[in-house]
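As a warm-up, study this chain.
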Amino acid sequence: MNLEDLLKELQALIDKYSADDAEPTDEDAARMAELTKSINEIRAQQTATAQTRAATVAAARAAIENGTARRVDAVPLARSANVGGVGNAYDVTDYDAAATRAWVKDIAERSGVQLVGGTALTDVERAAQNHLIEQRAEFTHTTGNTDAIIPVEIQSQIISLIDNTAVLYGDIHCSNLSGQFEISRHVSITKGDAAKTDEGAEPTDVEQNEYDVITLTGEEIKKTVEMSRKMAVQSLSGFQQYIIDEVSARLAVACNAFSHTRLADTTLGMAAANKIETAKANAIAKSDITGMLSKLKTFGNPAAKGVIIYANNDTIWNYIALIEDANNRSYFVNESTDDPTVQGRIFGKLVKCDDSIADGVIKAGYPDLFHGNLFDGPDVTPYVAPRSQKRCFDGYVLFDGGLVVPQAFAQLTIKTA
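Now compare it with the structure written out below.
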């Protein structure tokens, strides 16, 4: 019987004799004594259990504070501080946040930046930093210019900002594979391109494709963020956000410019026949744009984003936006979207402003067919410039890529006189 049942039975016996003050029978008196004893024993056991649980929780908290508790990812999930005693205490410390704080403090200390609250690591931050190094030792690519592993949270924020601010680079298909990366360039369909056959008949011309396989190992891209001595006193959260914002901004420009360099590359970029000029000097016509678009091909490769046109601000508003029909109506439609780089549409194609493109140059193509790979990074290396005493932070990525279909992009250059 449980405690509730025992109490109900005892109360019933008490009520039985309380009405007329009669004396209980010997049998009922013995039963009442037995029930009272059982109730007292259960209550004593509950009190002892509560005291043991409180002591276990207190010991577990002490173990976490002094660093003797086991990490939550190092013990079976079924074990709990409430079950087996102090030795099975969960350490539920947020080690990801602690590792991020440790990394920011390390960057600040090595670059001579003073943080409000200091740069000394707490026991939890030091344990998190060591654990991060141990966990990633076998599968994290670290570059030779740093001995500190950047936390995943910081990397993810930098990558996200780069993708959202780099125009062409943010549109391309980018993988994150280690070692080497191969691009199979679909050069052409040399035979058997969708031949017509009779019903039930075998194809009369089996499709044959020409491919070039190019192996990439990555190109180093580095940009430096400089902080003056006057700015060298920061809060931890403010300094963390400064590093993320500044490094991502500079790497975004560098990665975007490198992507355009690859578009122009004779091996990895667009086909030579897809680079054309306008018919007239210092002017652009509808036929120039349509001529550029007519050269684009996918050879059946998926390109979900479709064709996007890229040009800088000067070229968009001094040339593209001024193309008109016979009734002086512009083919360009000003259109606002959630993407601030989108300036409008022409012939149904998005027109994006890309400052990495020179004046008088327009590029169009399928960005999904530009395949890139981020081999390593982003990473950040801090140091102090010897002469200027500026606090410097080198942002680093190892990246490369190219077109899987050479005809997937085309370039129109406005002819000069």
